[in-house]
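Q: Convert this sequence to structure tokens.
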Amino acid sequence: MSEIMDDRGESRLRAAAQRLSNWGRWGDSDQAGTLNHIRPEMVAAAAGLVRRGRVFSLAIPFGDKGPQTGHLGRFNPIRFMLRDGDDTFAREMPGVPRGIGAADDVIMLPTHGATHWDALAHMFFDDQMWNGYDCRLVSSMGAEKNDISSYRDRIVGRGVLLDLPRHLGREYCRPGEPISSRLLTECAQHQGVSVGGGDLVLVRTGQLAMCRAAGSWGDFAGGDAPGLDFDSLDWIHSSEIAGVATDTWGVEVRPNEFHYANQPWHRIAIPMIGLLVGEMFDLEELAADCAADGVYEVFFSACPAPVTGSVGGPVNPIAIK
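A:
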């Protein structure tokens, strides 16, 4: 039975890859993917959504108490000091009198360890990444194509929050619950907001809030989770949204719907559609504000640091109302 299911999974995966490919759509050398849906006039219009000046950070804390457990080799951010106040207090630095000094530190973290964007070099399909680039262009030296620096000035525009638990009348979506394009559309309609070309869609499942209520990350990093179902890829492609981010570890539903390839939604979303994908976004404060004033669209800015060669981008996403 598992072999039959895997055969069907491979068939679904390959059919979607052929049906939804955006390769060449924005030229053979493109490395920005669906962010090409955001046009300058859309950014200007999105700036007009700022009415109250209320600013929301959508990042979880980047610290040693994060969700990572070592799965996939990912650990929580580590910070250590190069120099600190004790150095200033205890001794003179070269050319500086005692009592006058400074502090410096170093941060070590997996680029997918906390709130982040996946770069287009993050996923491969049949030995290729976004726009047909060879997967071997990502080596031990980093990514020569499709690295995170391609996003350095592109992730600005209209953000739309889809608050699924509130729409469903629950506190949280259930772990393992698939989220269909139909549910996303119904949620948008219920909230009185449209979703369309160039939008950056923020999907709240409530899983982050569920972990906080339990006082533990549990198996948040890689365990069962609500998430987008495989068929939502067709809606994403036809809607021409610029990107999607959720409050879960991996955006798509876990356990995955089929097992031919781990994270099958990712295998189409990133290398074939060229979709901007964000994970572990903290949407709780923003969602509460949207529920209070009934406004579910925001000015959104979340450009990552342009770390050359990197396949992921830690980020502090900002929503402004």
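The chain has a mean pLDDT of 95.
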